[in-house]
Amino acid sequence: MSLIDLLSDKGSWEGFLSYKQERGRLSKRDEEQLLALIESQGYLPCARAIQDGRALSPPQKIFLNKLGTARKRVVYSFDNETMWLLKLLAWLLYKYDDKQPQGCYSFRRNYGAHRAFRDIIQTPDINNYWCCKLDIRDYFNSIQVPRMLTILQDVLGEDKELYRFFEQLLTADVAMVEGELLYEKRGVMAGTPPAPFLANLYLRELDACFFESGYPYARYSDDIIIFAGSEKEILDCRDDATRIILQHGLEINTEKAYLASPGQAWEFLGMSYHAGTIDLSTITKAKLKGKIRRKARALRRWMIRKDASAERAQRAFIRSFNKKFYDSKNMSDLTWARWFFPVINTSESIREIDHYLQQYVRYIPTGRFNAANYRLDYEEIKRLGYRSLVHEYYLSRKTRSVRPE
């Protein structure tokens, strides 16, 4: 049976729902939507259209701001029912996890960022290795579809219907932009649910090259890190990786590429490693500080425009970052507590962020930084809803240490 046949199977939808619920991967809103879709069988029209070989309507092309830069990030999105159907398909594609490349940790069951980082740092004598860090520019949308389809033919094997669906989806080369139909190359369309599965497979040649060579190596989507015992070896590794990436029609983001000699800090997946210490990367801290500044200034402008109280603006500011850091009610979002806390082993950077956040809580009423701001003491900031990153970090460590196996 093809995975395409399962798109209209109610049991598959119920299994998908149960999986998401058990792992806390649904926001309340998404859970309500999915329950209603299953109850009404609202997925059937789209599922049957796909099973009949009809093409999906063109996706919307969306431009998102990239924090700290003037550049835009491009993602694609279909209508709500189609996106849910593609989410189900992405879940069903775990059937092919054994075809995923070794050394690739992104969007896979029992893998992920934490395992990638831990596998690297558990390498014996990792402090004595040279490091090469590479990043691919606009990876998902730059993937060359003809090469991608060749890979899919091999991976999907006898599921001809599933292959035909992907062939039709990836070769459409159209998108809606502000109500107009645009003809363009879209790669595997960042933002669509099957895109991570496809992006994992696309660079399997690169993963195989380094996994088979024995060099410490990890890839998380477009983020690549390689280690070698000498300068010559790491330069050779960089050249080999660059060659394969370019052969696949991709471009290396030279702004994020670097070499680190033994004993120097290196960064991967938003974290840094130096002589056994795992902390937030400099880029992570800089991006968050920029977000803090912008949010505080925006709320101060809102406060003045609406003649709202300073306390109301401060509470809104604190709520915004509590959600980003800790919000367990919306586990479809990747919070800091889920991403960083299980891996870092120092509170140095989060203590710095705590201090920075408190400065901007005090800034909102006056729009200034001065000694008078400290009339609002820490206990009063806590009364406004503030939760210290340092406190929450050590609380999470304590909770993990007593959790039963």
pLDDT < 50 stretches: none
Report the radius of gyration as a whole number of Å: 23 Å
**What's the helical proportion of residues?**
40-55%
Regarding quaternary structure, what we see is single chain
Average pLDDT reading: 93
Largest sheet: 4 strands, antiparallel
Please give the number of β-strands. Answer: 11
Overall shape: it is: globular
Give the count of helical stretches.
17
**Helix and strand sequence:** HHHEEHHEHHHEEHHEEHEEEEHHHHHH
First-to-last CA distance: 38 Å
* Alpha-beta content class: alpha+beta
If you had to describe this structure to a student in words, what would you say it looks like?
50% of the residues lie in helices and 12% in strands. It contains 17 helices and eleven strands. It has helices at residues 10-22, 28-40, 44-51, 80-92, 112-121, 139-142, 145-156, 160-170, 195-202, 204-213, 231-247, 282-306, 310-326, 336-339, 348-366, 378-383, 389-402, and strands at 60-65, 72-77, 130-135, 174-177, 180-183, 217-220, 223-228, 258-260, 266-268, 271-274, 277-280. Helix 1 runs antiparallel to helix 2 (28-40) and helix 7 (145-156) runs antiparallel to helix 8 (160-170). The radius of gyration is 23 Å and the shape is globular. The chain starts with 9 loop residues before the first helix and ends with a helix. The mean pLDDT is 93.
